[in-house]
Write a structure and sequence with these properties.
Blueprint (H helix, E strand, L loop, with lengths): L11 H36 L2 H36 L1 H34 L6 H30 L4 H4 L2 H5 L4 H24 L7 H29 L2 H4 L10 H27 L6 H24 L4 E3 L3 E2 L8 H7 L1 H4 L1 H4 L5 H12 L12 H4 L3 H9 L5 H9 L9 H7 L3 H6 L3 H26 L23 H12 L16
């Protein structure tokens, strides 16, 4: 909240997801590929098997083209995008783990140099020296994962770090080892998904053997991944698992993501058993595509689930998704967000324009105006209200209520809402009432979120929060003065669909 953020139309979180998921798919292939390629070459040398060695050679070309080119570029992209949309989080991670990042970069340099040497020295140095370079590549790549895993898992389960702020307490946090096992299985899945294509180029009589060989690797990766996932899920705090497990998960979207993740792994397992192990002669391009869909779906689903279970934090119980530190709540409530962040105070002082800048500071990290988690779409229009009030034919009012209103009013049944709403005739006589209605609902929500912040401030410091005790456990609290609540409410209420909206800079569009 100390810095202006890059306000992306589609939503910073969506952009980050695209960049990060594509990067981790490639980076995990780079690790798993290093392992399987060097073991494949080792076996080929011992067995004097030229076809097996050729598989390793062709796969190393894929490794170079995909991992060292796209992987390196997308890795830089993560730092750029994260720094623009979550500067507070990047600042916190660098301040806490600067030496961790430094160690990871050393391993990364070893990985890149060894990869280039490995690919360019086929049949130019002795086979023993070439294998040594391959193993050095894998060591550099895997230990890069070992370090990054500690930082990534810290963000979800900081553990004893919340009290001690000690490097190792945060690094070896409760989900460190389960996540490392899970990612070790995933690197194998990613490697096989890419290496199956070079295997198809083998001679017709050897291709089934090579396909089956990769199938056994994928099968092992499935079991390791599944074991790691179950272990990861088992050690998560109840306050986290409540978001996506149980009969009534807090966030149905995360529950659906969990199902998608496990079914994707099941698809990969089925394709492996049927096409790679039992009938490798029938494996074709479609087989590889289905395997990639299953493997990428499992990994991408897990990444979304892992990110989603941090809601509403970037570092659980320490830093919210909008850059607000838990320790800052009391101070900002007393002084105001404008006094805390000078860029919020700058610009047009008109209430709606001021509210727009508050929106960017406190809400834009998760919400957009018209894109992902659109604010405008969440506001009811006169047409929406007419459909609910008309109830024509009978029963359709409840249907429209579920579609248009239940996201925000899940605790109120249709009949209760119908009794509180104006009648259809009253709505048509005074269509402007919708602005007052929206303003009232928004103000009430913001007041609740501000009160929730006071509850956070009263929690025992150094402990991971039990979010189940809060009404809106997946949202950061609102911080600021009552005047700032009013300004933000006016801005949000001005976003009725079909009207121009005052943007954060104070102008109009």
């Amino acid at each position: 909240m100390d810095y202006p953020i890059w306000n992306v139309a589609m939503g910073g979180g969506v952009l980050m997801a695209w960049v990060a998921i594509t990067h981790v798919i490639v980076s995990h292939f780079a690790i798993g590929g290093g392992l399987i390629i060097v073991i494949t070459e080792t076996l080929a040398v011992k067995r004097s098997d030229p076809e097996l060695r050729e598989l390793a050679r062709r796969s190393s070309l894929v490794l170079i083209l995909v991992s060292t080119v796209f992987g390196a570029i997308s890795g830089v992209g993560i730092w750029v995008v994260a720094g623009l949309i979550s500067p507070g989080a990047i600042s916190a991670l660098i301040h806490n783990y600067v030496w961790g990042w430094a160690i990871e970069w050393v391993f990364f340099i070893l990985e890149i140099v060894a990869a280039l040497v490995y690919y360019t020295t086929w049949d130019k140095i002795s086979k023993g020296a070439h294998l040594l370079v391959g193993w050095l590549y894998f060591i550099g790549a895997y230990f890069s994962l070992v370090v990054i895993n500690g930082i990534i898992t810290f963000m979800l389960t900081p553990g004893g770090w919340l009290e001690s702020h000690a490097f190792w307490d945060g690094f070896f946090n409760p989900t460190y080892w389960p996540s490392l096992v899970l990612r070790t299985g995933i690197v194998v899945l990613m490697a096989v998904a890419f290496m199956l294509w070079p295997a198809f180029k083998a001679s017709p009589d050897r291709r089934p053997d090579l396909v089956r060989y990769l199938g056994w690797w994928f099968l092992g990766g499935v079991f390791v991944s599944y074991a790691g996932y179950r272990w990861w899920e088992a050690v998560l705090p109840d306050t986290v698992t409540a978001l996506f497990l149980g009969e009534a998960p807090t966030l149905a979207g995360l529950a659906a993501t969990r199902s998608f993740t496990l079914w994707s792994l099941t698809l990969g397992l089925a394709v492996t058993v049927v096409a790679l192990l039992l009938a490798p002669k029938l494996a074709r391009g479609l087989t590889a595509i289905l395997l990639m869909v299953g493997a990428f779906g499992f990994f991408g689903g897990y990444e979304r689930l892992r990110e989603g279970t941090r809601k509403p934090f970037l570092i659980h119980s320490h830093l919210f998704s909008n850059g607000l530190l838990v320790s800052q709540i009391d101070e900002i409530n007393a002084r105001g967000i404008a006094a805390h962040s000078g860029w919020v105070a700058a610009g047009d002082p008109a209430p709606e324009a001021f509210g727009g800048r508050i929106f960017v500071a406190q809400c834009a990290s998760c919400h957009t105006i018209d894109g992902y988690q659109s604010i405008r779409e969440a506001l009811p229009t006169v047409a929406d209200m007419e459909l609910v009030a008309a109830d024509q034919p009978s029963g359709m009012g409840a249907v429209h209520y579920r579609e248009q209103c239940s996201r925000c009013h899940g605790d109120i049944e249709y009949q209760e809402m119908a009794e509180m709403m104006p009648t259809l005739e009253e709505i048509r006589e005074d269509p402007e009432f919708i602005r007052e209605l929206n303003l009232g609902m928004i103000t009430m929500t913001l007041v609740e979120l501000r009160d929730m912040g006071e509850e956070f401030a009263d929690f025992e410091p150094g402990k991971q929060f039990d979010m189940r005790t809060l009404d809106r456990s997946y949202m950061p609290p609102f911080v600021g003065t009552e005047e700032e609540v009013e300004a933000l409410a006016l801005y949000l209420a001005s976003l009725d669909r079909g009207e121009t909206d005052v943007v954060a800079t104070g102008g109009e569009k």
